[in-house]
Amino acid sequence: MTSKPQSFEQAIVDGFRLLRVKFRFSWGFSVRLPGTSASEPTLKLPPPTTLIGALARGLAYVLDLPEVYVERGEMVSTAEKVSGFTRSVHLSLLTEEGKAPFWSIMSDITRMQALQYLQPKYWRLEHMDTWFGVHSVGKVYIPSVLSEGIYVIDGSEAERALGGDWRSVLIKSALSMTAVGVKESIVSVEDARLTPMRHIKTEGYVSSRFYFPSKAVSPSDLVFLRRELMEDEYWDHRDRKTRVLDPRKTMTADRIPYVIPIGKGIPKPLSEDNLPRLRFRLSGKGVALTDIDPVEEALKRGDVVLTLRRWLT
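The chain above was modelled as a monomer; its predicted structure follows.
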């Protein structure tokens, strides 16, 4: 007697978990914009690939892993291990004492080594005076701001990669995170936990305090959101080309637009007071997830992550 195949909803509810990590930035962060070279503007929020890398660094500490390893003849980042069981990643800047967090983007003038941007004829010692230059380096200042990252974890893949004790290993790895962004983007982790996940089946309106891929929103509502909130372009974290380190090849992953919870005009992170007016419907590509019960409370608080259906299958 054959068993019935699981529905999409049942499959993700049974096999997936949400890893919630709360951490506080020391001063802020810097994450270089995709496609830039000598100029180094920063993204407005740390993208999914950066959060995966932060967790991978914690995992490397817990399991005593190298920074890179060779797989099928390719040099691969340890982030590949984490990315294999991480289906989606989301970030929110949290409101404390009823106040929206401070957020400011700017650039610092920095003397930097620029040899990799020069033609080979300038690599000789007699041209050493050209090896350094003054560059503009983008940074986001969010001093002492509490943030929350949510990782959508495929439990079966995590068990395959980390063994039967994968839950404990993941929690320890999250608690071992030290930076989100460049190594100077120091964070202190305040809480990490794994929770059961629920799929919110709705054709009505939702809201979220976390960033999410723009394609998860219905096109008509996306027009409205783009007037109110900022967007960033992030590397597709499910694309393996973001973790393969091969200097012999030029490998470029796709970039995906995300709606981020920072208002336009006078830039200001989204507060809970703004959520009721920033409601929208999902597109056919979008999925809403939470671990809050009842679901109505999650929708009210914006404690919902929105991701793409294709990342969960």
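Residues 48-63 form the longest helix (16 residues).
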